[in-house]
Specification:
347 residues, elongated, six-stranded mixed β-sheet, Immunoglobulin-like, Leucine-rich repeat, LRR (right-handed beta-alpha superhelix), mainly beta
C-alpha cells in the first residue's frame, strides 16, 4: 500500500467516536539498526513508545506520521506503544515488511492495519471498528477477527490458515483475498450486497465448497470478480477397490463435472479405475491424480477452476506405502552390497 493511500485511509477513519480507554500496541520485530513505521492517532492526543532497548521512553503526539529509531545493533526487540489520552486514540498502523514476529493491538478506534510481508506467527486483535486488515505473506495458522465486526476489506493471503470465520462481520463486506493458504473451511460475512472481489486460489476447497461461496457472494448488486484458481486436496493413501466418494461434486446447476484421471503423470487407462456418479474405485496400484472441473463455477480470464486430488493406491493386502517399500528395498540393497564387500575382503 502506498503511503498516500495509507494516510488517506487514516483520515477517513478519524471521524469515529469510541469510549474505551488505554489502548495499546505491542509487537516484536527482528531488525538491524535503523527502523521506521507509520502510525496515526487522533490529532493532539499523546502516546508513549518504548523501543525495547536502553533508550528512554519516547512521547509523540497524534496525526499521521512516520516514526524512526536507531538501534545499537541487530536482534529481537519488543516495542510497546501506549496511549496517554483519556480515550482511545490510535487510528491506524503500517508495519509491513518490518521483520515482525508477533503483533498485539487493543484499540477501540483502530481502523487500518497493514502488517503484511513479515514472519508473524501470532496476531492478536481487539479492534471493534477495524475496517481494513492486510496480514498477507506471514506464517499465521490462526486468524481471529471475531471482535472486528465492522471489517470490510481483508487480505490474509499466503499464510498457513486452515479455517477462516467472518460470520460475525455486521457491515457490508467488499473484498476478500485468502489465496495460498490451506483453507478447507470459510464462513463468509453475511452481508455482501456491495461485494467486489473474492480470491482463494491454492487452498483445499472442494468444488461444492466453492459453489456455495459463489452463490453467497452473488447476492451482490454488481458483478463480482472471482479468482478461484486451483485447489489441491490433502493427498490420501487408499487400497485397490476402496471407494472414494466425490458424489457431491458430480453436478452443479445441471452441469456435469468433468473428471480427469491420471496415473503416474500420464492419462490413466480406463481399465485401472471406475467412476460412477462421482464415486471412484481404483483397480490397480500406483499414484493417481484426479482433476475435477465444472463450468458452473465462474472462470478467471478464461481459466476454469480445478480441484486436484492425489491418491497413492496400495494392494488390498498391503499396509505399507509405496514410498516405504522403496525405502526398505533401498536399505536391503545397501546391506547386501556391504555383505558382499565384507565377503570379498575375506578372500
Amino acid at each position: 500500500m502506498s503511503r498516500q493511500l495509507f494516510f488517506t485511509a487514516v483520515f477517513l477513519a478519524a471521524g469515529f467516536v469510541a469510549t474505551a480507554k488505554n489502548d495499546s500496541i505491542q509487537f516484536t520485530w527482528n531488525v538491524s539498526y535503523g527502523v521506521s513505521f507509520d502510525i496515526s492517532a487522533v490529532q493532539g492526543e499523546q502516546f508513549t513508545i518504548h523501543w525495547g532497548d536502553w533508550e528512554e521512553t519516547f512521547t509523540s503526539t497524534g496525526t499521521a506520521q512516520q516514526l524512526t529509531h536507531m538501534y545499537n545493533g541487530s536482534g529481537e526487540f519488543t516495542v510497546k506503544i501506549t496511549s496517554l489520552a483519556e480515550e482511545d486514540c490510535f487510528l491506524s498502523i503500517g508495519v509491513g515488511n518490518k521483520g515482525l514476529i508477533d503483533l498485539d493491538i487493543k484499540s477501540e478506534k483502530m481502523q487500518v492495519i497493514v502488517c503484511s510481508n513479515n514472519q508473524l506467527v501470532n496476531l492478536n486483535l481487539n479492534c471493534p471498528i477495524l475496517r481494513y486488515l492486510d496480514c498477507s505473506n506471514n506464517q499465521l495458522t490462526n486468524l481471529n477477527v471475531e471482535t472486528s465486526t465492522q471489517l470490510t476489506n481483508l487480505n490474509c493471503s499466503n499464510n498457513l490458515l486452515t479455517t477462516l470465520d467472518l460470520s460475525n462481520v455486521v457491515l457490508i463486506f467488499s473484498n476478500l483475498y485468502c489465496s495460498d493458504n490451506q483453507l478447507t473451511v470459510l464462513k463468509p460475512p453475511p452481508y455482501c450486497m456491495f461485494f467486489f472481489c473474492f480470491e482463494c486460489n491454492n487452498n483445499r476447497f472442494l468444488l461444492s465448497d466453492l459453489y456455495v461461496l459463489c452463490e453467497h457472494f452473488n447476492m451482490a448488486w454488481r458483478e463480482v470478480r472471482y479468482y478461484l484458481g486451483i485447489q489441491r486436496l490433502t493427498a490420501q493413501t487408499v487400497k485397490v477397490n476402496d471407494t472414494i466418494d466425490f458424489s457431491a461434486q458430480r453436478q452443479f446447476d445441471n452441469i456435469a463435472t468433468v473428471f480427469i484421471v491420471e496415473k503416474n503423470d500420464t492419462l490413466a487407462d480406463s481399465s485401472t479405475y471406475n467412476i460412477s456418479n462421482g464415486i471412484i474405485t481404483f483397480k490397480d496400484t500406483g499414484y493417481y491424480t484426479v482433476t475435477m472441473t465444472n463450468l458452473a463455477l465462474p472462470p478467471y480470464v478464461g481459466t476454469y477452476t480445478k480441484v486436484i486430488a492425489e491418491f497413492e493406491v496400495l494392494p488390498q493386502d498391503d499396509t505399507t506405502s509405496i514410498k516405504e517399500q522403496l525405502r526398505v528395498a533401498s536399505c536391503e540393497l545397501r546391506v547386501t552390497s556391504y555383505e558382499l564387500r565384507v565377503a570379498n575382503r575375506k578372500y
